[in-house]
Amino acid sequence: MLHEYQVIGRRLPSEQEPTPKLFRMRIFAPNEVVAKSRYWYFLSKLHKAKRANGEIVSVNEIFEPKPLVVKNYGIWLRYDSRSGTHNMYKEYRETSRAAAVEACYQDMAARHRARFSSVQIIRVATVKASEVRRPYITQLLQPNLKFPLPHRVQRPAKKADRALIIAQRPATFY
What we know:
Layout: E1 3-11, E2 22-29, H1 32-46, E3 54-62, E4 71-80, E5 85-94, H2 97-112, E6 119-126, H3 135-138
Antiparallel strand pairs: 1-2, 1-3, 4-5, 4-6
């Protein structure tokens, strides 16, 4: 299960820079240790800073404000495939940002064989129903959406009530 963390860090104070600039990132990781590690990984790519000459000021877990409401999420990501690096935009219907990112990692592993280390989440945003782009999400946005349950065989409540041989076939349609 992935969690969303806010990690704030900076370079170590020096004589040239007594109050270094703080850098904040929202990281999706299974625990705080991995979140700190991913923070330094991304910070070393974005700025000239590394763990040896830096410090983490705070690590906070970010919780979903409405975890029982289903929302549409758009995820911008970048991943390394066998042939090169690709940018991508994907949409998911989930109850939280962390669940949407976890679904994204599973989806990338299934469709593109991309491992966790080769996928970089750039941005996660809530998308309004009118702004959804992907057809596999728009089909779920109909107001009178129904999921029929075809071919249902009625079973007896207890095993003792079950007849071994029945004269007619079961009616499995309604």
